[in-house]
C-alpha cells in the first residue's frame, strides 16, 4: 500500500530531505517532538517491522546505521539520542510505511506514554 511517504520519495509532495541513497531517504518530521526529529525510511514499501522478512535484514541494518550517521551529523553523539520504530495500533504507528524516528536535542523521558 502506498502512503504519503512514497509520495515524498517520488517528490510528489515536499519534505525537508536531509539524506538519500539507493535504499533509503531521511527527512525532518513535519510535527517534531524534539529539537531534532528526523525520519529514516526505506525506499522499499514495507509497512512495518512486523512485515519484514529475513530478506530485509541488511536493509534494516542500513536504516539504523544511517540513523547513527545522521545523529553524528546533527551533533547528537555526545549528548545522546533515541531511535524509535512504532509498530501497529498499540505501538502508535500512524503511517504504514516503515520508518525510524531519530529524536534528540533534549533529555527524553522514559518510559514512553
Ligand atoms: P508514526 O506515528 O510512528 O507512524 O510516525 C509517523 C510520523 O510521520 C509522525 O511523527 C508524523 O508527524 C510524521 N509525518 C506525517 N506526515 C508527514 C509529512 N508529510 N512529512 C514529514 N513527516 C510526516
Compact description:
By secondary structure, the chain is α+β, with helices and mostly antiparallel strands. It contains three helices and five strands; from the N terminus they run αβββαβαβ. It has one domain (4-104): 2-Layer Sandwich (HIT family, subunit A).
Write the SSE topology.
Elements: H1 4-9, E1 17-20, E2 24-28, E3 36-42, H2 57-73, E4 81-84, H3 88-91, E5 100-104
Antiparallel strand pairs: 1-2, 2-3, 3-5, 4-5
The structure holds adenosine monophosphate.
Residues 4, 15, 29-31, 39, 86, 92-95 line the site of adenosine monophosphate.
Give keywords.
113 residues, alpha+beta, HIT family, subunit A, 3 helices, 22% strand, binds adenosine monophosphate
Description:
- The chain has helices spanning 4-9, 57-73, 88-91; strands spanning 17-20, 24-28, 36-42, 81-84, 100-104.
- The protein has 113 residues and is of the alpha+beta class.
- It has one domain: HIT family, subunit A (2-Layer Sandwich), CATH 3.30.428.10.
- The protein has a 5-stranded antiparallel sheet, with helices on one face.
- Strand 1 (17-20) and strand 2 form a beta hairpin.
- It is globular, with a radius of gyration of 14 Å.
- Adenosine monophosphate (AMP) is lined by residues 4, 15, 29-31, 39, 86, 92-95.
- Adenosine monophosphate (AMP) binds next to loops.
